[in-house]
Write a structure and sequence with these properties.
Blueprint (H helix, E strand, L loop, with lengths): L1 H10 L3 E8 L1 E3 L6 E6 L2 E13 L6 E8 L4 E9 L4 E10 L7 H5 L7 H10 L4 H17 L5 E4 L4 H9 L3 E4 L7 E6 L3 E6 L9 H11 L5 H20 L2 H4 L3 E3 L1
Parallel strand pairs: 8-9
Antiparallel strand pairs: 1-7, 2-3, 3-4, 4-5, 5-6, 6-7, 8-10, 10-11, 11-12
């Protein structure tokens, strides 16, 4: 999850501001940067982590890139519409973990249960829906014990992917049940219904607006970093909530 760690570092201000012009060599076909000059020598670009618009200039964009040496930079390009060219500069460099004190270094990490980390690594990312699915799976293990059972889920999302990876129960999806509503059916013993409150599943206020900007590729690199911090906060709320706070479970026959 290196991308998320770098975005957390940016969101937490763990950067060195440079704002210095550079020379850049681009791929002649796709016009993406391949290498750039910094401190008197060329640096090869190993990975383009993120591409974002510039929040001050509609003709500029930012490439969050990683070099072959592992350093991460915000490399910016502005199009010159008059001269049909462009100019480049480095906005900032993300500080390496060895450059920040231990307290700040921990803020780059999402401290979670090892099983959840392994599941998220296998799936490809960790998001609030995936965290909810994991919490439902933990609850289901306690309800089912060694006997197994059925889970009817009202959310075809990352939550169902987490549930599918966690247990041997039978998992079915019924989107008509409502978002993040789950029915755990114990053969011969009734069922337990779980209903996750909207405030833990639907972003609201400025978070919703920020999510739209990111999903529509209208966010700057700093806004994308801020969005990652907000996602982390929501995941933390889900993981810290008690079963009663998260589910309000009810028994039925």
């Amino acid at each position: 999850m290196d991308r998320e760690a770098w975005l957390r570092a940016i969101g937490n201000g763990q950067v060195e501001w440079l704002n210095t012009g550079v020379d850049v060599s681009c791929d002649p076909l796709v016009r993406l940067p391949m290498r750039f000059t910094f401190k008197g020598r060329w640096h090869e670009i190993e990975q383009i982590i993120e591409v974002a618009r510039d929040d001050m200039d509609a003709n500029a964009e930012t490439f969050l890139i990683r070099t072959g040496s592992g350093q991460v930079f915000a490399l910016c390009r502005r199009l010159d519409l008059v001269k049909a060219g462009c100019w480049w500069w480095i906005a900032f460099r993300v500080l390496g973990s060895e450059e920040v004190i231990c307290f700040d270094r921990r803020r780059r990490q999402m401290l979670i249960d090892l099983e959840l980390k392994l599941l998220a690594d296998g799936y490809g990312h960790l998001c609030p829906d995936f965290a909810i699915g994991w919490r439902v799976g933990l609850f289901a293990r306690r309800v089912f014990g060694e006997n197994g059972g059925n889970i009817l889920a009202g959310c075809l999302s990352c939550a169902s992917e987490a549930l599918a990876a966690m247990g041997t129960w039978n998992l079915k999806i019924d989107a008509l049940m409502g978002r993040h509503f789950y029915r755990l059916e114990v053969p011969g013993a009734g069922c337990v219904e779980l209903d996750v409150p909207d405030e833990l599943t639907w972003p609201d206020g400025d978070f919703a607006g920020l999510e739209r900007q990111v999903s529509e590729n209208r966010a700057s690199i700093l806004e994308i970093a801020s969005y990652q911090i907000r996602i982390d906060e929501q995941i933390s709320r889900i993981l810290a909530a008690t079963d009663q706070e998260l589910f309000s479970p009810t028994m039925s026959r």
